[in-house]
Design brief:
mainly alpha; 2 helices
Length: 88
């Protein structure tokens, strides 16, 4: 999770830096707007990539934890069942 936060921070910092750089560039207004639009689209794609990557990692981790939980429950059921049979 810390990697996702760090990457998000880096992306945000890059976006701010790009916006400031474009704002102070000596281009015509139409060129500047095109640059801003392109940078915004690039940033949007980067954010989507980070979100999808984070989602995929979260789903994989949840699946692993569910499998481990099922194995633990099965082991406990087997142990309890064995003790109940011995007690009877």
């Amino acid at each position: 999770m810390n990697n996702a936060k760090a990457l998000t921070g880096i992306i945000a910092a890059a976006a701010v830096g790009a916006a400031v750089g474009i704002a102070y560039a000596p281009d015509k207004g139409s060129k500047t707007r095109k640059k801003i639009r392109r940078k915004a689209e690039d940033l949007s794609e980067s954010v989507k990539d980070v979100a999808l990557n984070t989602k995929d990692k979260t789903v994989a981790k949840a699946s692993t934890l569910i499998d481990q939980g099922k194995k633990t429950v099965d082991t406990l059921v087997d142990k309890v069942s064995g003790k109940v049979v011995k007690a009877a």
